[in-house]
Each structure stands twice: as structure tokens, then as C-alpha cells.
Design a protein that fits this description.
Length: 156
């Protein structure tokens, strides 16, 4: 009986530690996202975010050196912001994730799992270095719903 109690105690302690570590990680991510939202870089990007708010977004790509928005209709690129073209250094992994989270705050539709999927993908640079990018992609049923609504005549 003593062995099971000890095992249960260790398992419970491990679960509590895992929860605390996760809570601490989330707190840091929120701080980084808020710092990103207050940065000069985000201030410059926000003009593009404001334009994206006026469109139905098909896809958003965030990489360490650029961010690109694509529209559902008319299909194509809404805009692109290349950091190096504006005098900024490429972002590290932590700041790239902070940018993703800041965009989710300002474009809340991206947070809706039933409308958009977020995935992380690898980008291999010419020097062999591996970076990660993030992509929000519209889900097909939501895109169909948007396109169907555009085809309906206004009843007035």
C-alpha cells in the first residue's frame, strides 16, 4: 500500500509541476506579445493589419523576415511587409511567435479554430539554417460560406 501512495504522490507532484511550467510559459508568451504590440516594428506593420481587417483573409504567413496577407476575394495578396526593407533585423523564434500572438489579438477571427488553422512549418535557408514560420489558413467550409454570401443578391 505504501508503494502505491508514494507513486500516486510522485505522479501528483509531476502533474502540479507540469501545470506550473505551462502557466509560466503562457505568462511569458503574453508578456512578449504585449511587448511586440508596443514595438515600433508592430506600429509599422499595423497599417497592413488595418487593411487586412477590411478584407476576408485567406491566408497569413509569418516568417522571421516577412509577413504576408492574402485575401479570399478578390483572390491575391493584400500586402507584404519585409523587415529588412524597412531597416529591421530578422526576428528570432521567440519574437516571431510573439508577432503571431499579437496578430491574433488584433485579428480575432484568426483565433477561431473553426474558421482558421494555424500551423508551424520549417524554412531552410540557403546557408542550411532551419527557421520556422507560421501560417494561418482559412478552413474550406468557412471560405465556402464567405464566397456563398458574396454571391447572394442584396434584398432590400
Amino acid at each position: 500500500m505504501g508503494g502505491w501512495t508514494l507513486l500516486l504522490g510522485v505522479a501528483l507532484a509531476a502533474a502540479v509541476i507540469a501545470l506550473l511550467v505551462d502557466y509560466n510559459r503562457r505568462q511569458h508568451e503574453e508578456v512578449y506579445a504585449e511587448r511586440m504590440r508596443r514595438s515600433m516594428l508592430y506600429y509599422e506593420i499595423y497599417a497592413l493589419v488595418a487593411v487586412a481587417k477590411e478584407h476576408e483573409i485567406d491566408r497569413v504567413q509569418i516568417e522571421r523576415n516577412r509577413i504576408v496577407f492574402y485575401a479570399v476575394y478578390p483572390p491575391g495578396k493584400i500586402g507584404e511587409y519585409v523587415l529588412t526593407d524597412h531597416g529591421h533585423r530578422p526576428l528570432n523564434a521567440q519574437r516571431t511567435l510573439a508577432l503571431v500572438q499579437a496578430l491574433m489579438q488584433d485579428l480575432p477571427v484568426l483565433q477561431e479554430n473553426r474558421c482558421y488553422a494555424l500551423r508551424r512549418y520549417a524554412v531552410v535557408r540557403p546557408n542550411g539554417q532551419k527557421d520556422y514560420g507560421y501560417q494561418f489558413t482559412i478552413r474550406s467550409h468557412y471560405k465556402t460560406k464567405i464566397m456563398y454570401a458574396r454571391q447572394q443578391p442584396w434584398i432590400g
